[in-house]
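re the bet — no i am not wrong, look at it urself. input seq straight from the record:
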Amino acid sequence: MDVPASSRAQSRRPSRFRAAASCLAVVTLLATSVPMVAQARSAPESFADLAEEVTGAVVNISASTTVEARNRTLPQLPPGTPFEDLFEEFFNRRGGQGNGGSDSAPQRQRRSNSLGSGFVIDSSGIVVTNNHVIGDANDISVIFPDGTRLKAEIIGKDSKVDLAVLKVKSDKPLKAVKFGNSDLLRPGDWVMAIGNPFGLGGSVTAGIISARGRNIESGPYDNYIQTDTAINKGNSGGPLFNMEGEVIGINTAILSPTGGSVGIGFAVPASTAVPIIEQLREFGETRRGWLGVRIQNVDDATAEALNLGSARGALIAGIDEKGPAKPAGLEVGDVIVKFDGREVKESRDLPRIVASSPVGKAVDVVIVRKSQQLTKQVTLGRLEDGEKQATLQAPSTETPTVTRQALGLNLSGINDELRRRYNLKDDLKGVVITRVDPNSAAADKRIQAGEVIVEVSQEPVSTPADVTKRIESLKSQGRKSALLLVANPQGEVRFVALSVE
């Protein structure tokens, strides 16, 4: 049984998207007629030849997990209760304990089963599927179209992109398929899927590419292919083919109110999957590049405040003290616009680009700092080694209490009383916000009392006078916005652009 895509992500918030087993709200789409392009390729007369060529490499995945079932204890009923015998018989029949039963009685085991799809990529017995198809299974079988069932071992798996690589042993070479270049796909291209919908066995469906680069908030590297090819419960882990019989995607999730296909399915692109599969085969684990920064998106107001010209890039909101970015000279407030020769159009592009870069590689990072474009060279670390590193916190000192108003905020210098009142981190430095006007732009941006302004337009502030002075300076320069670096009481920072007009 497939699981929701939202359960595979960091369950920080509910997702509208589910794995191929699940269901959610869907929007009705109205089709409109458009003129046919004269040079467009017509639909194939049949997909039969293509299906016959590749079906032998598509397999069903059966995964079983053995878990301990809790013993049930019969409620302590008073002697002579009319239903005492009935309860005793009911619980004993199910392996539970009656009154006076031993607490040390052995627990029963229960098996949980799931079905999905996969495909062979190497005739020696290498099989690819979704991580959520196998989960924590301790018994995995791969079932071939001719009915052959082979036990599988896990070579490696990756929950962030929902991939798993399995190995089976066969007496003969297996039919295998190869990956194609998913970057060449265009919306409207024909594709074909083969999988195990609803446990029926190998089924073929066809459709077109609906869109590329979809972000369904299932993980940090979302870059899905959207297709109207029918993807249903049990199709997860199966291949999405182009018309040359190459795998250009791995079917992973659908948007549906019923668990059945409504023409909105999502596949991991081959360009994303192949490097991960290669790492899992070689190392048994992923080895992603790591920059050691915390980023946020650049909106129009932030772009204006930073004099970027247009909203682009990834704004550095924090730097890991032990990460590769710090010794390379990257700073909070820098906007990364290009990484290793690849343009960073928005913040979500950067994690995907960095993660796909080799560990230990020296890369050029182009940044915009105070309206100047600079290039820094960074030697990438390994993400898996740095995931538990704490975010860098700014040093601090105490300042006297002085209160002022600016931008709809009441501001005070940090003192011991305010530090206790708002439970501020001991080393947090800046100007504390003691009140937010509910009708102000600051309230709309969710600034709250107890937060601390660390910088104004990339200049450190330690007193309310520093804040008002910087704002007046910005006004005199004809600037429309002030970029605040705001920390919560725990010291976690973010950038907020506020109008100074």
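see?? DSSP finds twelve helices and 28 strands in the chain. told u. also The chain has a mean pLDDT of 80. so pay up
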